[in-house]
Amino acid sequence: MYPGSRMGAWRRRMIMLSLCLTIFLAALDVTIVSTALPTISSSLHATAAEYAWVGSAYTLASTSMAPIWAKISDITGRKSALIAANVAFMAGSTVCALAPTAAVLVGGRVLQGLGSGGMFIIVTIVIGDLFELKDRAKYYGLTALVWAVAGAVGPVMGGAFTQTVGWQWCFWINLPFDAISLVMLAFFLKLDTRKIDVREALKTLDWVGSFVIVGGTICFLYGLETGASGAQAGYSWSSPLVIALMVVGIALLCFFCFYEARVAKNPLMPPAIFASRANIAVFVMLGAHSFGIIAYSYFLPLYFQTVLGFSPVISGVSSFPFIIPMTFATYFAGQFVGRTGNFQIPIWFSVITMTLGSGLLINLGAEVNWAKIVCYQIVLGLGAGALFQVPMIALQSQLEPKLISPAMSALNFLKNLGTSCSMVVGTVLIQSGLRGSGGGLTTHGAGGQATPDGFEEAYTGALQKMWIFYTCVCTLGIMSAFFLPKENIKGKRDGRQAPAEEQPSETRSSSEMQDGLVGEKQQDKSGDSDGKGQALEEVAVADLGQAVTLTDVEKKREGV
């Protein structure tokens, strides 16, 4: 029995509220600065490079640190790691709000990203630790719903703060709500609280893998950002700096894969999580979903502002036909999987509908057509919703408990990497389309500003070519769906078949008993006077997801 099954409804709700609040704040800071950036740049006299880094520094730090946070949470315990990540995020928010220069603001965004990387991944792992497989879909659905809402309201909030109380409130707003989340986590989340030897803990970290993946990710994404910035940053795709960054980044990421597979003793991403076609299919599906979802969230508002002339606030509101159906689809898909154990139906519905919705966007023109704007976004949102969490359940159903944490870490890393790459690829496709039609990104206006004659048509044509590309990406989800596992997850528990009814724990397999005894022996060596309670804790750590009673420990000691 999982901890979530034993706790009361009130405590379970408080835990989920704190986790959802954590996700909301981390997701909000991805988009809240988008509409505030021009004002921030003017206020702090930012250069073109600093302007670009205010947005990308957060994503770079968050993406590169996620696998390391997952490993830290394995060593120190989920609660301690999650609290530390929240504290880092709050510290970064404070630095950003008080920043006197653009350089300090970028530093604060890096610190925010370091914290948000842990917030995203540890919340995912905590839900896996707390709840049974069949129940996780609805809880992952809640966090995905919160993520979608944060992405939708972020630009609106950023524009509203900028026009009223000041851009600093894009960061001040995090502090009171993150403080509430921290207090709730401290009081209600009761997971493993481990007594650790710092030296031993440091030895178990994959230091080489950590440095390589951080360095490779930063080089690769910085190369993409610099190349995409073009003349604004003073570089082009053919410049030596961009080429060097891309080559070094790809080389380091390839070396990371080799090192994790062949050399690392405690790898950040064990090769076993990629051992089957079904597992790889989930990674491909979620990678394609993340690649597409950020494009719809970012480039649709850009279309509303640049082509249709909407203000930032109206542009955010115009995205609601996409966001609201997506949140409903996310919630009901989780409920469906939780009740039936069938994840095939929502996945097939989603990959087909999302591809259809992406294809419909190709038909958006340079004139305001509310029927198309609303209907196309509804189809797209209904398709995108279920893919936030249901494929994760399909992956977890194939894994042993000890592999779930690194698998979620790898999945989160891939999704963040796809998100970062997608924004760059989409921008490059638009720039290419505008050059082909004689336009240019630097010549346009938004929110009703004057633009050259014919620019809206040229920009619409560039967007249509981009939507064709993203529709092709969506077809990867359809192809990968053929390789997903076919079984029903009702009655399964993390890749192992659970009994029809909860059996006494002494009926566990001999291998599980062996794991428990190993935990006891380790605890006995530590000299802890409270042998019974600590032995129980070690058994729980050695065999995640299994309920163990004090009687079990005594029986094993007596040789039963």
Automatic annotation (TrEMBL):
SUPFAM superfamilies assigned to the protein according to its UniProt record, in alphabetical order: MFS general substrate transporter (SSF103473)
Domain Major facilitator superfamily (MFS) profile: 15-489
Domain of life: Eukaryota
Gene3D superfamilies in the record: MFS general substrate transporter like domains, Multidrug resistance protein D
Residues that span the membrane, as ranges: 51-70, 82-104, 110-127, 139-160, 166-189, 235-259, 280-304, 310-333, 345-364, 370-395, 467-484
Membrane topology annotation: Multi-pass membrane protein
Region annotated Disordered, chain positions: 492-537
Basic and acidic residues biased stretches: 521-531
Keywords noted in UniProt: Membrane, Transmembrane, Transmembrane helix
Subcellular location: Membrane
GO cellular component, one term: plasma membrane
Major subcellular location class: membrane
Record-level Gene Ontology MF annotations: transmembrane transporter activity
Protein name: Major facilitator superfamily domain-containing protein
Organism: Microdochium bolleyi
